[in-house]
Every structure is written in C-alpha cells, then in structure tokens.
Amino acid sequence: MSNIKLKTEIPGPKSRALTKRRSQAVPRGLYASTPLFIRHAEGAMLEDVDGNRLIDLGGGIGCTNVGHRNPRVIQAIRAQLDAFLHQCFTVSGYESYVELAEKLNALTPGNFAKKTFLANSGAEAVENAIKIARAHTGRHAVLCVEDAFHGRTMLGLALTSKTHPYKDHFGPFMSDVYRIPFGIPADQRLSHRGPVKQKEVEAMLDHTFRRLVAAEDVAAVIVEPVLGEGGFVVPPDGFLNALADICHRHGIVFIADEVQTGFGRTGELFACTHFGLEPDLILTAKSLGGGLPIAAVTGRAEIMDAPGPGGLGGTFGGNPASCAAALAVIEEFADGKLLAQARLLGKTFQQKARVWQRQHPFIADVRGVGAMQALEFAHPDGSPNAAAAKKLAQHCLQKGVLILTAGTYDNVVRLLMPLTISEEDFAEALTVIEDSLSAIAPEINEVAAATH
C-alpha cells in the first residue's frame, strides 16, 4: 500500500499561490530548491498545503535524523515551554545547558577532558571554533579542503569552496585561508581507488607550508569527515588520520565539522568514529536539535578555555527549548537502534543503486557511509552532468519523493532521509527513484549522443 498520496499536481494551486506571495515578500537570494509549502510533517512523511503526501528524503537538509516531530523531542520541548522560554545563559544559567555540555563532552570522540560551547547554527559553530583555535595558538591562518562547505557567514564563505551561488559578489573574504585537496585532487576522484599514504599527505602539506603559508602560522585545519554540500565525498583511507597526525606534529588545531555528518547520519553517532579520529574540536548542529536551531563546539578543555571571559557568547546560543530538544535527541540514540537503522538504510540503497549504475551509464558513482548516500552523474566524457541530477530530483518530486542535489557542479543527488523512515516507505521511495531514472534515461542518453 502506497503512503504517497497525490491529490494535485506538484506544486498544487495553494503552493503556487504561496510561491507568488513569496516572490513579492522574500528576496530572490533565498533560493527555493522545491516549490513545496508544507503544513504538516510526521516521521519521514510530508503533507503540503494542497493535501499531497510525500516521502521526505531530504530531512530539512539533514536536520531531522530522529524524524519529524519525534515524540520524545516534542515532549521535551513542551515541558521546557511550561517552565521558561529564554534566559540568556551568559546572564542567568539553567541546568539543561550544563547537562547538554556534559553529555557532548562524554559522547564525542577522545578520552580527554573536554568543554562545550553552544551556539545557534553550524556557521556560528565554525566561526567560534576558528576564534578558539586562534586564541589558543596565537596564530592566524586556516587550512580547509576542496569542495568544503562551512556556512554562509563571511568567514564561512572564506572556508567554503563553491563559488556560485554561495560566494559570488560577496567578497573580499577573510585572508589567510588556504585550500588543500581532500586527500586527492578533485578531478581524480572517480578514477582513484585505494588509500593514500602518509608520505603523500606529508608531501602535499609540505608543499602548502613551503609555498603558501608557514606551518607555524597555521592556527587550524577544518575538515568535514565526509563532504556534505560538496557531494557526499568519502575521503580516501588514511587521509584524515595522516592529516590529523601532521596537525598535532605542528601544533595545529584539528577541527572536525560534523554539522551534517553528526548524530547518526553515517551509522555512528559521529563520523569521526569510522576513521578512528579524535579531533581537537568537533562541531555539531543540524540534527543535534531534532528540528530546533542549536549548534555546539566541543573540544579539548585547554583549547576551549583559551578565550577569556566574554570572548564567547551570544544572546540565543543554547536556548532552553533547543537544549531540551538536543537532550531528547541524545536519548533517542542511546539504545543504538537508530545507528543500526542508518547502516541498514545505506546498505539497502547501495544494493539498489549498484544495479541502477549498471543500467544507466550516466550514473558515474554510487557512494556514501551509512545513511549518507549519493549518486553522481556524468556525461560520457566524464564531465559533470548537472542536468541529469536536476531532472531526477524534479521527476521524483512529481511522483511524491523529495530528494536534494549537491556537489560543486550540482551533479550529485543526495539522500538525507530521517533515520526513522519505515522499511515500506523507504522501499517505495527507492522504487520512485528507480522508475524516475528509467523515465529520464532516454532524454539524457539522447542529449549525450547528440553532444558527444
């Protein structure tokens, strides 16, 4: 029995009317990746204002790993609302902030003393992590990687790799930001297989330290354990460990940005666990709040204590309702069932997607870790095929499944479904993707034949 129920075309008349109002009231810079307007969400299902029921494989860009309106999260928020809604932790404290910090200190990788600072968004976590690293080291430069995404603030944009639409017309950005390959050069990813050696990473960093910035001037390296907006790229074996080792050798703070990978997305609570990493600082947000805005910087106590009193702060950081939601999210993961579900979802997708790849030559790669999975599309000559990714996302939406695109060249389709999605709903969603691939294949193949 199908849980997708389409009463109108997508978008329906009410969504179209709201789109018109949006265009008149909201600036064009706030891009709409779909024309949907939602009035209700539950688990992994969305209902739009026209009464259409769709399966959500986007999860609010990875913010609802525990599902839309998770009962435990909703109950915790309601209880907090009955007590108080806002205090500002820097003025008068409350226990939930401290409790959440204690839990993050205990749960994040690394058997050493830690402390946690709470903020509102992933970009805020990035900003504060760099501040903390600079204060600790007395240095100024920062290293990041190709195809990284670290937010839309001015510092976040300096660290973010993709130019259009994120960085166009917004410069100049913070200086002393230097970019290195994510293990191997981006143009070699599809052809490269196997690990990278420590000496290869050392040679790459030696080039950077000799020609771009001195190692003794670098405060931090910031890296996503698996690239998010950059296309769900999994690092080659050995890269992150070698990078962390070199950082420690030179007194550079190693920052893991787990804003999108954290809280179960990859089948572990933190993606760093897959690689045996113990970052100096780890950044979390998105699914930490179960749907409410909250972010955290957690790290070595001596590094976190580097800024003086008043050096960190924010009016709404660690809002009481968001803290309550985050504590409930942590409880949801306590028994390990959601982590097992994430691994099962990834395995199920991989089994299907490998078949699709053999059927459709324009699928250049199937990749991911746990429930963080993606398809990459390419033309016959290997160049990125953004049109194929866009067509697939649009066709799936018309059939009642919401999926998102990603990648520096917009040629990747990614899955960020709630981990609570039922086996039946996920199977139905995969069937829609499979049918959509078959439906768009003739047009994609025809264009490929005509242009190559």
Automatic annotation (TrEMBL):
Region (Disordered): 1-23
GO biological process terms held by the UniProt record: gamma-aminobutyric acid metabolic process
Alphabetical list of Gene3D superfamilies matching this protein: Aspartate Aminotransferase, domain 1 (3.90.1150.10), Type I PLP-dependent aspartate aminotransferase-like (Major domain) (3.40.640.10)
Keyword Transferase: yes
Keywords of this entry: Aminotransferase, Pyridoxal phosphate, Transferase
Cofactor field: pyridoxal 5'-phosphate
Keyword Transmembrane helix: no
Record-linked InterPro entries: 4NH2But_aminotransferase_bac, Aminotrans_3, Aminotrans_3_PPA_site, Class-III_PLP-dep_AT, PyrdxlP-dep_Trfase, PyrdxlP-dep_Trfase_major, PyrdxlP-dep_Trfase_small
EC numbers on record: 2.6.1.19, 2.6.1.22
Family: Belongs to the class-III pyridoxal-phosphate-dependent aminotransferase family.
Protein's name in the database: 4-aminobutyrate aminotransferase/(S)-3-amino-2-methylpropionate transaminase
Protein's organism: Silvibacterium bohemicum
